[in-house]
Specification:
By secondary structure, the chain is of the alpha+beta class. The chain has two domains: 10-142, Phosphorylase Kinase, domain 1 (2-Layer Sandwich), CATH 3.30.200.20; 149-400, Orthogonal Bundle (Transferase(Phosphotransferase), domain 1), CATH 1.10.510. It is built from twelve helices and eight strands. Strand 7 and strand 8 form a beta hairpin. Bound molecules: adenosine-5'-triphosphate.
Length: 406
C-alpha cells in the first residue's frame, strides 16, 4: 500500500492545545506565571513561564517544551537525554530544575468537589483530559531572550542592514565553535557552567552530533560584560537536540554519508556563519555547486573546493568587500565538501580566538589582512570604522528596535 502522508497523525492540533492550555489553566502553583507561547517546530512546542523562587523574592523566565504525539514524545525524551550529557556547556541551551510542575493540579478538582460543585469539577476534569497528552515528558530549559539567529537575520533585513561588522562575525563564529567543542568532548558539569575547551593531548573526539544545524536552532542570549568573548556581542547557544528514534537505532546521527561528529559540526557551524554573513537564512545548501578558493594553512597557500562560493566569488561586491580575508578563508574551509579540507577543531578554535583578541582598530581594515581591496577607514569608498560602539549600536537596533514601516 502506498504511504499515506495525510494518514500520519499531525501534532498541530495538540500543539495548538498547548498554546491554549496555560491561558486557560493558569498554573496552580502560584509561583509560575504564563508569559507567552514561543513557537513550535517539527515536533515540539515551547511556552515561556515566569517562575518565582521558593522565597518569592526573585524570579526567572523558563521555557517548557512538550510534544504532541507518542512518536514526538520519544524524540523529546532523546532530547532531554542528550542535553543531560552536555549540561553545563555555556554554548548549549541549559536544562533547568523546577521544584514542582506548572501543570494542572488535581487539588483544584478536589477543591471543587469539597465546595460541592460537581459541575465545575466535571468541567475541569473534561478540559484537563482533553489536554491530557500534556502529561508526557517536559523539557525545562533557560530562556534565550534575544530570539534565534534566523530572527536576527530577518530583523536586520527589515532594518535594511546590508552587512555585519567583522568583529561580530568573528565572535558569533567563536560561539559556534565552542558549541562544536561541547559536542566533540561532551562533559557534564557537577553544577555551574563552563567555557568549552579542547582537552590537552590527543583524545579522540566523540560522535555526538547536532543533526539540525540551521539559523533557527541557534539562539541569542545576553551580552555579559564580565565575559571577554561576550562583552560586545550576545552569546550564541545551540538548541534542538531532538532526534528521530530510527536515526538513533540505525546509527544515522548525521546529515551526510560517512559523516558524523566533529567534521559534520564544523560544516554545520560554517553554514550558520555563511547565512549570517549573507543575511539570508537559506542561501546555502549542501546541494550547491562548489568552487575553488585559495586559502592559507600552516603557512602554505592551497586551493580547496568549497561551498562558500556565494561569498568567495563576490568579495568585490559592497556586501562582502569589508570582510577580513582570514575570516573568509576559515569559512571556506569549514564549508569544504570534503571533510579532509575542513580545519582541525583545535586550529579553527585558535584562529577564532586570535580573531576576537585583535585590537579593535584592526577589524575590517583589509591591509593587515592582505585584503587587496584595502577597504579600511581612510580608503576612498572604504568601510566606516568598525568600532565596538558602532557594532553595539547596530546590535541594539537590530534586536530591540522596531524596523521602519517602509
Ligand atoms: N530556550 C529557548 N528560548 C527561547 N525560545 C526558544 C527556546 N527554545 C526554543 N524556542 C523557540 O521555540 C520554537 C520551537 O522550539 P524547537 O526548535 O526546539 O522545536 P522543534 O520542534 O524541535 O523544532 P524543529 O522544527 O527545528 O525540529 C523555536 O523556533 C524557538 O523560537
Amino acid at each position: 500500500m502506498a504511504f499515506d502522508f495525510y494518514a500520519v497523525p499531525r501534532p498541530d492540533a495538540q500543539l495548538e492545545a498547548l498554546k491554549a492550555y496555560f491561558p486557560k489553566f493558569p498554573p496552580v502553583d502560584r509561583r509560575f506565571k504564563y508569559v507567552d507561547f514561543l513557537g513550535s517546530g517539527a515536533y515540539g512546542a515551547c511556552v515561556r513561564l515566569r517562575e518565582l523562587s521558593m522565597d518569592e523574592k526573585t524570579s526567572r523566565d523558563i521555557v517548557i517544551k512538550q510534544a504532541g504525539t507518542e512518536e514526538h514524545r520519544r524524540e523529546l525524551r532523546w532530547e532531554i537525554d542528550r542535553l543531560k550529557r552536555i549540561a553545563g556547556s555555556l554554548h548549549i541551551v541549559q536544562l533547568l530544575d523546577i521544584q514542582s510542575s506548572p501543570f494542572f493540579d488535581f487539588d483544584v478538582e478536589k477543591a471543587a468537589l469539597i465546595q460541592e460543585n460537581p459541575d465545575m469539577a466535571r468541567d475541569l476534569r473534561a478540559d484537563y483530559e482533553k489536554a491530557g497528552y500534556l502529561l508526557g515528558p517536559m523539557l525545562v530549559i533557560e530562556l534565550l531572550e534575544n530570539g534565534s539567529v534566523k530572527d536576527f537575520i530577518n530583523k536586520a533585513k527589515a532594518h535594511k542592514v546590508t552587512r555585519l561588522p567583522n568583529r561580530l562575525i568573528w565572535r558569533f563564529f567563536l560561539c559556534l565553535v565552542r558549541a562544536c567543542i561541547a559536542l566533540a568532548y561532551p562533559r557534564r558539569a557537577g553544577n555551574g557552567q563552563f567555557f568549552e575547551v579542547i582537552p590537552p593531548g590527543d583524545q579522540a573526539p566523540s560522535d555526538f552530533t547536532q543533526t539540525d544545524w540551521q539559523t533557527g536552532n541557534v539562539m541569542m542570549g545576553g551580552i555579559y560584560t564580565d565575559q571577554f568573548e561576550h562583552q560586545t556581542s550576545p552569546i550564541l547557544k545551540l538548541i534542538d537536540f531532538g532526534v528521530w528514534e530510527d536515526a538513533v537505532k540505525f546509527d544515522l546521527l548525521y546529515n551526510g554519508p560517512n559523516e558524523k561528529g566533529v567534521a559534520h559540526d564544523i560544516f554545520g557551524a560554517g553554514t550558520v556563519i555563511f547565512n549570517t554573513i549573507a543575511l539570508d537564512p537559506f542561501l546555502l545548501s549542501p546541494w550547491d555547486t562548489p568552487g575553488q578558493y585559495q586559502i592559507q594553512r600552516s603557512g602554505q597557500t592551497r586551493e580547496i573546493t568549497t561551498l562558500a562560493v556565494g561569498i568567495t566569488r563576490n568579495l568585490d561586491s559592497p556586501k562582502y568587500a569589508h570582510l577580513d580575508r582570514e575570516l573568509v578563508s576559515l569559512l571556506a574551509q569549514c564549508l569544504a565538501p570534503s571533510p579532509a579540507d575542513r580545519p582541525p577543531l583545535r586550529d579553527l578554535f585558535d584562529s577564532l580566538m586570535k580573531g576576537v583578541e585583535r585590537p579593535p582598530e584592526e577589524y575590517g581594515v583589509g591591509v593587515s589582512d592582505g585584503n587587496p581591496q584595502g577597504t579600511g577607514p581612510g580608503v576612498p569608498g572604504g568601510n566606516p570604522p568598525e568600532t565596538d560602539l558602532a557594532a553595539l549600536e547596530l546590535l541594539q537596533k537590530i534586536i530591540y528596535e522596531a524596523p521602519p514601516p517602509w
